[in-house]
Amino acid sequence: MLALERDSATASHWQPDRYDKVFSEVSPRRVALLIEAEGTGGEVGVQGFLVARSVAGEWEIENIVVGEGSRRRGWGRCLLGEFIGMIRAEGGETVFLEVRESNFAARAFYQDSHFVESGRRKGYYSHPEEDAVVYRLSVA
Q: Any residues with CB less than 8 A from the CB of 11 and at least 6 apart, and which?
């Protein structure tokens, strides 16, 4: 997963211990989904993942990554669809996420997935400093 994230210029780059915590924490307020499939080079491995948590009654997508060589194959839609289906079945009502203002591909993906821009967080990202665009989706 770290390799996928590091290969993606637009992914949130977490420290390894953060992933250790996410995957060792068993909680109804935490979701981690993986896509394991054959990659473009024929190797089988993790091609994408989604990590989310429940915060104050809403679900936040903390990180969603599809490997550079696995994009445009529907994996992002698969991850997002599975996640939304899970939280909808559990009575979840709202999903939100932040994305770099300059990440136009991700922003188009979320807009195509019916997320609505609901705000901005000034200077949210560093390296380089950049605003975050906040998107929300009602799943109720």
A: 4, 5, 63, 65
Using one digit for the tens of pLDDT, what is the confidence trace for 43-80? 777 778 899 999 888 999 998 888 766 677 788 899 99
Which pTM was predicted?
A: 0.79
Task: Specify whether the backbone of 90 is left (phi greater than 0), alpha (psi in -120 to 50) or beta.
Answer: alpha
The verdict on whether 101 is a catalytic residue reads no
For the chain, the first-to-last Cα distance in angstroms comes to 31
- The token duo for 41 is 């080079």
**DSSP for residue 47:** E
* Catalytic residue (one of 19, 43, 98, 130): 98
Catalytic status, residue 110: yes
Report the domain count for the chain: 1
Find the CATH number of the domain harbouring 46: 3.40.630.30
Which residues form the domain of 96?
A: 2-138
Cα angle vertex 50, ends 83, 77, to 5°?
60
Among candidate residues 25, 110, 117, 130, the one labeled active-site is 110
